[in-house]
Amino acid sequence: MIALRAQSLRLAVSFCILTSLVLTTGCFDFGTDFTYGKAADQSVNGVSVFANLLRERGHTVSRKRRLTKRIDRFDTIVWAPDNSALPPENVVAWLEKWLGKGSPKVLVFVGRSYDAKLDYYRGKFESASPRDREGWQRELAEQIMHSREYNFDWRFNSSDDATAFWFDEVDDEDAKPLDPSKLGGPWAAGIDPQAVHLDCERLLKPVEDYNEEDAVPEFAISVDSEESEYDEYDYWAEDFRENEIVVKDLLTVDGEPFAFEISTYVNPNRKVIIIGNGSFLLNYPLMHAEHRKLASKVADEIVGDVVFLESDYRWPRVGGSANDPALHWSWVGRAPMNYIVPHFLFWGVLYCFVFFPNFGRPKRIQFHPPKAFRSHVTAVAAILRRSKEKNWARQMVDMWLKRTNKTKN
Q1: For the chain, what is the HEC assignment?
Q2: pLDDT tens digit string along 288-325?
Q3: Which of 106, 161, 227, 405 could form a disulfide with 76 if both were Cys (CB 3.0 to 4.6 A apart)?
Q4: Does one domain contain both 241 and 99?
Q5: What domain range is 397 assigned to?
Q6: Cβ(215)–Cβ(209) below 8 Å
């Protein structure tokens, strides 16, 4: 009994220690989340604020990580990839086929040339106290250096499978300094240019000449050929042959397109909206009132049910399982669970190693001999007395004496 109580006490103490460690883990500062392009994360670089704006307007908002048939039922795809390169050919082809399935269909593509992390650290540096200012300045310098390294790697490690079907990148030799205060286009109506902070370092531009074969991917102009990998009906390729593509500037900066729309004369309700970067659409920039107005301009273009296509530096997988099992467990990788779950695993494994295995040299069990023989006689007599049958009790005693060859005393 004493050993059982000691074991129970030990288990209770272990559970209390484990619970206190897990709970106190949530009392610390886990740092700022900088995950890019996720609609469910409260990240500086996330798009959850824009997703909530769409929900407030009555849109049904979902999230996907793979391009499967389950996306066919959605009317709008919002995609902010964490990759600065051009999308690969198979992803572009899948999205084009999706655009041809029903009407209206809208694809919103947000470029990756902007990172809200730098603005976040600039804001921290400017608002820091004199005592903390040096630390934030050092952190800001490190982030600027990492950003330059990222841009360098992006320029020299772009995917060979990339294609410039909807848009192209502004060449370095063609790039010119832009004045962010000079806004134009339909989205600029009612916007205060002085209160808008757009990153115009690397922008996207529409494909200039759709009649040249170099401007159209091979899979688009060879849809009917037997060698084509995408031999099904292709909505965009058909319109390219008829030269019916329409490009409309939605927002310009100093005369250069920052956001533009690609559609057709035949089906203007099927369109691709290209936004140079998320400098007014991500969570952190949406703190500014004028940026929220620009985000509302984007929301005006959204139709029906919306799905946010989430992808990191790897492009989304085409096909595969439609259940997105990784998305169901994505909460494990977000704060504070990404700190709590490892603690549970560590202390759980440690608990199993401490309490379940038998370590060390084996011990001999000490058996306690009976105190006295009369205790057994007393116990048997008590059992016979419970029967309340005196004759039967005598018979039992006689039977035991005969078997043991003892005479009755």
Answers
A1: CHHHHHHHHHHHHHHHHHHHHHHHHCCCCCCCCCCCCCCCCCCCCCCHHHHHHHHHCCCCEEEECEECHHHHHCCEEEECCCCCCCCEHHHHHHHHHHHCCCCCEEEEEECCCCCHHHHHHHHHHHHCCHHHHHHHHHHHHHHHHHHHHHHHHHHHCCCCCECCCCEEECCCCCCCCCCCCCEECHHHCCCCHHHCCCCCCCCEEECCCCCCHHHCCHHHHCCCCCCCCCCCCCHHHHHHHCCCEEEEEEEEECCEEEEEEEEECCCCCEEEEEECCCCCCCCCHHHCHHHHHHHHHHHHHCCCCEEEECCCCCCCEECCCCCCHHHHCHHHHCCCHHHHHHHHHHHHHHHHHHHCCCCCCCCCCCCCCCCCHHHHHHHHHHHHHHHCCHHHHHHHHHHHHHHCCCCCC
A2: 899 999 999 999 999 999 999 998 888 888 876 545 55
A3: 106
A4: yes
A5: 373-403
A6: yes
Q: Which segments of the chain have a pLDDT < 50?
A: 1-4, 6, 25-30, 152, 156, 209-235, 237-243, 322
Q: What residue type is 265 in one-letter code?
A: Y
pTM score over 0.85: no
Residue 287: inside a domain: yes
Q: Torsion over CA of 90, 91, 93 and 98, rounded to 10 degrees?
A: 140
- How high is the pLDDT of residue 328? 62
Residues 391 and 320 in one domain: no
Residues 75, 173 within the same domain = yes
pLDDT for residue 28: 40
Report the pLDDT value the prediction gives residue 1, as an integer from 0 to 100.
Answer: 47
Whether residues 86 and 150 fall in one domain: yes
pLDDT at 361: 74
In a domain, 43, yes or no: no
